[in-house]
Amino acid sequence: MLKIIAHPCRLRIIDILKNGEQGVSFIQDQVNCKQSVTSQHLNKMKNRGVLKARRSGNEVFYSIANFEVLRIIKCMKDCPHSQRRDKCLKS
Q1: Model confidence, pTM
Q2: Can you tell me the mean pLDDT for 22-33?
Q3: Which tens digit of pLDDT belongs to each residue from 10-22?
Q4: Which residues pair with 54 in a beta bridge?
Q5: In 3D, which of 62, 52, 48 has the Cα closest to residue 16?
Q6: What would the CATH number be for the domain defined by 2-79?
Q7: What is the rounded distance in angstroms from the CA atom of residue 71 to the CA atom of residue 69?
Q8: Could you tell me which residues are beta bridge partners of residue 52?
Q9: DSSP H helical segments within 1-91, as ranges?
Q10: 79: alpha, beta or left, given left = phi > 0 and alpha = psi -120 to 50?
Q11: pLDDT for residue 91
């Protein structure tokens, strides 16, 4: 799980989706990555069971499939032994 969420872009995607389902277009605008890069990250997390997807017309909507990922991220944020706090981990 840590390996699949370790990328800053993936952490930002999870942060966007923690409040509910969003379309790819919205996610892409929020993470400021190229469409192809965003799609690769979304697919990797979907294939590992972190996210789930549903299609509506031409749009694909993603949401969190495994909410344990939010607990893991919270533990990382709260860890008193963390020397380096990456801005992507701050809420």
Answers
A1: 0.81
A2: 92
A3: 999 999 999 999 9
A4: 61
A5: 62
A6: 1.10.10.10
A7: 5
A8: 63
A9: 2-5, 8-17, 24-31, 35-47, 68-78
A10: beta
A11: 45
